[in-house]
């Protein structure tokens, strides 16, 4: 079943390896890479992931609101466990997109994605969900734009007021979606006045 498939994917990447990689990065931070993913404040970051059964409960509760070929995004995706679990639970998903700031965790996630593509995706079928991994700050990228499901763990759980932060994140996602549907003003090669020039009172 889905849980067994996900566990097989992680058999060579146990939690001890993940925690070790995370500790290495916290205590020996790098100076950052060319992609702008600086480790300057890496000690302020934490690592935690959704449990498999939590995802099961989420997909059951909101199954009627998650359309076929949906996009699932995990902001602060760690090694990608929720992404691979989502792909196993809902093979009709189109993409599972993860954004992670810590380079060590992103590297492990990339190793797991290679295993997923080689071993698990063929079992899920010709239209198996694509897993995309991006390193960086989810506030500054557009990789997860258009997501139907947005997972956020540590940014909410470690906030001073987690319920308030969860509500704020939800409002932010809904506001962004509404703005996207409203459509931005057309791009122009030169400036033009936005206020009408007709109907003005002339002296």
Write the layout of secondary structure elements.
Blueprint (H helix, E strand, L loop, with lengths): L1 H8 L5 H13 L24 H10 L9 E5 L5 H9 L5 E6 L2 H22 L5 E6 L13 E4 L1 H4 L4 H21 L21
Parallel strand pairs: 1-2, 1-4, 2-3
Description:
Helix content is 43%, strand content 10%. It is α/β, with parallel strands linked by helices and 203 residues long. It has a 4-stranded parallel beta sheet, with helices on both faces. The longest helix is centred in the middle third of the chain and has 22 residues, at 103-124.
Features:
43% helix; 10% strand; 203 residues; alpha/beta; 4-stranded parallel beta sheet
Question: What's the total count of β strands?
Answer: 4
Instruction: Give the overall form.
Output: elongated
What structural class do the secondary elements suggest? alpha/beta
Catalogue the unreliable spans: 31-47
Give the biggest sheet. Answer: 4 strands, parallel
What is the CA-CA span between the terminal residues?
Answer: 79 Å
Question: Brief overview, please?
Answer:
By secondary structure, this protein is α/β, with parallel strands linked by helices. The protein has seven helices and four strands; from the N terminus they run αααβαβαββαα.
């Amino acid at each position: 079943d889905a849980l067994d498939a996900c566990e097989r994917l992680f058999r060579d990447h146990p939690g001890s390896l993940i925690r070790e990689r995370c500790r290495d990065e916290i205590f020996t931070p790098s100076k950052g890479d060319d992609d702008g993913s600086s480790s300057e404040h890496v000690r302020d970051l934490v690592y935690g992931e959704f449990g498999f059964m939590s995802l099961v409960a989420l997909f059951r509760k909101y199954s009627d609101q998650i359309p076929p070929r949906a996009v699932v995004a995990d902001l602060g995706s760690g090694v990608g466990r929720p992404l691979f679990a989502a792909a196993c639970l809902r093979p009709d998903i189109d993409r599972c997109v993860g954004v992670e700031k810590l380079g060590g965790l992103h590297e492990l996630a990339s190793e797991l994605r290679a295993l997923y593509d080689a071993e698990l995706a063929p079992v899920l079928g010709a239209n198996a969900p694509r897993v995309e991994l991006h390193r960086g700050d989810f506030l500054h990228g557009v990789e997860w734009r258009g997501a139907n499901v947005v997972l956020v763990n540590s940014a909410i759980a470690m906030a001073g007021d987690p319920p308030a932060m969860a509500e704020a994140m939800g409002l932010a996602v809904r506001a962004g979606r509404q703005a996207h549907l409203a459509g931005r003003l057309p791009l122009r090669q030169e400036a033009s006045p936005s206020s009408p020039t007709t109907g003005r009172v002339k002296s």
